Predict the structure.
Amino acid sequence: MEKRYGAALFLVFLICSLVLLLKLFWTYMSAIVLAALIASVFYPLYHRVKMAFRNRESLASLCVTLFLLAILVVPVGWFVGTLSNEAFDFYRRSTTEVSVKRIQDIIEHDPVWAERFKKLGKMTGLTITPHTVEELADAIGKKVG
């Protein structure tokens, strides 16, 4: 009877360990799958290069690795750099076009917009002042950025 409990306890610990191991590797699963996909796609190239270098595995591995680096990593790095530059340009344009100070000046000095904000405030029950605009901008900045 004691052997039976030992086997059951072992299975429980084994299953718990496997679940925890899967949970640990789950965050890296996309990278593992991508690496396996790239390795399986480029294995025939490696095999041909290895035959061309008379079965020198180290030299063939180096050549294929450098080839993959040039083909995959360099364009992805260029793309990420371009994307980050575009995002920074968008941020710079949006901060210069829409500024809280400009909105506050419109509320205080433009009578047409001031009247519109007063009507909007009466309809919604909100008080729109330069101070509330600044609070709203701070809240949006905290949520977004």
User: Anything to note?
Assistant: DSSP finds six helices and no strands in the chain. Residues 98-145 form one domain. The chain has a mean pLDDT of 86. Residues 48 and 64 are 10 Å apart (CA to CA).
